[in-house]
Design goal:
2 helices, 0% strand, single chain, 84 residues, rod-shaped, mainly alpha
């Protein structure tokens, strides 16, 4: 994202300055933009990881109960087929 902006900006600066800057400025702009992308994405991933762990801790904090079925009170029914 920022690396593309840096590349295009570097190309514009390089074209206006001319000479070796035609090659140096786009490479420098791309490099600076790439470093900015990495810093930005590292910050975004760091915030997401912190937010997700809090949500998981709250969700999994409740007690777990096991419910057993009382088979003596269950009525067993066989499927009835209509033959007629």
């Amino acid at each position: 994202m920022f690396c593309c902006v840096g590349l295009i900006g570097g190309m514009a600066v390089g074209q206006s300055l001319g000479g070796p800057w035609t090659y140096i400025a786009p490479a420098a702009g791309f490099g600076i933009g790439l470093v900015a992308d990495m810093k930005f994405m590292k910050g975004m991933h760091g915030k997401r990881d912190q937010r997700d762990t809090g949500a998981l801790a709250k969700k999994d904090a409740g007690p777990v109960r096991e419910i057993e079925a009382d088979e003596s009170k269950v009525q067993h029914q066989a499927p009835q087929l209509d033959k007629g």
